[in-house]
Amino acid sequence: MSENITCPMLSVSPSRGLVDEKFQVVVQNLLPRQEVTLHALMRSEDDDLWEAFGHYISDAKGAVKVAEDESVGGSYEGKEPMGLLWSMRPVPGSRTGLRLRKKDITKPMVVHISVYWGHVSQGFTETTALACTIVERWYMAPGVQRVEVSEDGIIGTLFLPAGPGPFPGILDLWGGGGGLVEYRSALLASNGYAALALEYMSPKTMSGKAQIGNQYFEAAFRFLQEHPQVCADRVAMFGLSFGTSVALGIAVYSTMIQPKCLVCVSGSHVQPVRGSLADVFKEIGKNQHKTRYDNEKRVIWRDLLLPIPSDPNKKVDMGQLRCPLLFILGEDDQNWPASESAQDMEKMMKEAGNSHLLTVLSYADAGHLIEPPYTPHVCSSNFMTVQQREKVVVLWGGQAKGHAHAQEDSWQKTLAFLEQHLYTSTDHVAPSPQ
Q1: Where are the domains of the chain?
Q2: What sequence ranges are listed for the domain Acyl-CoA thioester hydrolase/bile acid-CoA amino acid N-acetyltransferase (predicted)?
């Protein structure tokens, strides 16, 4: 009978915003203490469906406010303003090993949000919704420019913020999955930074004569510095996973460039000193016997760099680092020994007297893939190895709620760190070790 005497109203504000912006979801005109389900559905660019849902009970005025009310069940529980996004998972019956990643950042992610009577957990497509709305989530803010780069041997995409500039620059380095990944750079540009997404681990850049070394990254860094819309003395490096190895090695050993600051996520300083990418892979290859598998046959690679070596020739000399470093890690990372690496890095820097340059953000329930906020946590997914071109399922680790908190908190602190050192700080360079 309640369906006949009420006409629920569903609103989401803003209905169009950036990926790292929160929205407000409100349902009105319900009966007091009415049980309802809020459901979010999105189709990926690979044509897979992802969903999330929360069970709510309306207040005495017949309203549900997701930012204030608790979900009592569903894909997330508790007061979670953005739970309808970060708890998304493939719908039942989907292909295995999926990971949600935006490829065409010139288009938004379109999320359909609906409200249903009762506490529903399945069969959403067979049930009539009480009200629906559509939300657009963008990586590119209005006015951000996307410029393809293919010159002087550099392959990548440059994102420039709206306005005349010049802007601080960021060289954006992804990990062992290879390819050209643009979405974080687009979001950085939307927050005021000229960001270059660099392709460097792909068949295109690692075959035949295209084997790349440190000069490739130095050239990319200089490309940013020399761009007319970039502040030459305010260029940072941002590395994830294997990108951390590249960023740390360049920052410490390059005689050609000096980053203003570094952001490193889920990585390590363990690598052959002054080695090329091929040398790093060769060293890791020696430890393939340390690969483990869980009871679902998912690959665990974190032991390949353990124990952290005492031999100084096998790790970056962090005592020589001369710029501020923000190091972000998940304590449940099953892919890289980020926690152990951070502890050793901190020890090395304390002994060298430059530990004031290091800030570590450590999250207990986070895994390896710490990405921009409100994007779904992926515990494991399909992965194509660059060297062997072999498809495996990799265990990344993390728990959904804790990982979501890590992504939100670390992103806010990353933006604050970048603003401090690229926009508002004076030169912050430690003296070279004697």
Answers
A1: 2-138, 145-424
A2: 20-151
